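Researcher: We're reviewing a set of sequences before deciding which ones to prioritize for further study. For each one, I'd like a predicted 3D structure that I can look through quickly. This is Nuclear transport factor 2 family protein. If possible, include the structure in token form so it fits the rest of the review sheet.
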Amino acid sequence: MDHFEDIRRTVATYVEGMARGDRAALARAFHPKAASIGHFGGGLEWDGVEKFIASCEAEAIPADAPVPPHEIESIVVAGDTAVVRVVNVWAGLDFRDTLNLLYHEGRWQIVAKVFLHLT
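Model: Here's the predicted structure for Nuclear transport factor 2 family protein, in token form for your review sheet.
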């Protein structure tokens, strides 16, 4: 099994799902108990996956628009856990996300996302 390729696919599903506001894609990428955490707009956001998905739906790009590019900076795998650093664009803003993934029920799932809004 190529864990790195499976992880890259999960990250691509996350980035595309986030950009398109695709609830089904985001539900595949995230564990249902996942959290999205970081400072934004002067405050701390600590949201469950449902609130995060709702915000992606609200900020979705048009269906005919290209998905903004992303860059995976690093992937570290240790057993059934992984940490991915990815730079991406969401709602026209640049972010560096640290994604914690767990291999569970036969697939890699994001269990926590800690984001940094790049200025």
